Amino acid sequence: MYYDSKIIHKEWITHDVLKLKLEKPKTFQCKIGQAIELSIDILGSFKHFAPFTLTNTNEDDFLEIIVKVYGEKKRLTFWLSELPLDSKIIISEAWDSYEYKGSGVFIAAGSGITPFIPMIRSLSKANMLGNNTLIYANKKQEDIILRNELTGLLGDNFLNVLSREVTDSCLHGRIDRPFLESRIGNKRLFFYICGPEGFNYSVKENLISLGIAEEKIQVA
Question: Lower CB density within 10 Å: C or N end of the chain?
Fold first, then answer.
């Protein structure tokens, strides 16, 4: 099933990442960790759909997506960034992506952080963040999505790792086996991984090599 919606808010949150709030259709239902397919009407054609994680919480009366914008005109994200407010969009039913199973470590790279944003927000609202940790890989500080919000929610449990910039406020390097070995003490936690395919594979294999049970690791 598909629904008509429209853009009700646009905000650039990094140099190439856009936050969009969408009108929530009356009969649309979703839960934390789900995603949608989205398309737009450009020149009378909306045949191309692309997936986006919903970053709103269940209590919100709108839908929210965070979009990494690529400059090529053949990319849907470019046209999304060009649309004015109230532009019509088409969205699919929500489908399962990630499921929060318990306290653990979120490990993300770039726009792969999006599935974890609503989980962290929802846990905070319920006073259940506990010792959940977010380890977030980017190239430079300017690439960090929602840095202020996530720092406010997680404090010292928000670790930024930069591969192409050295700063006083972030770690430098990559989320490789030595890094994971130095940061992970409790191997009974849940581990949630999201990023490019190669990143996901590498982090998962490194966690398993460190003695983390595969059933404790979630990768979309």
Answer: N
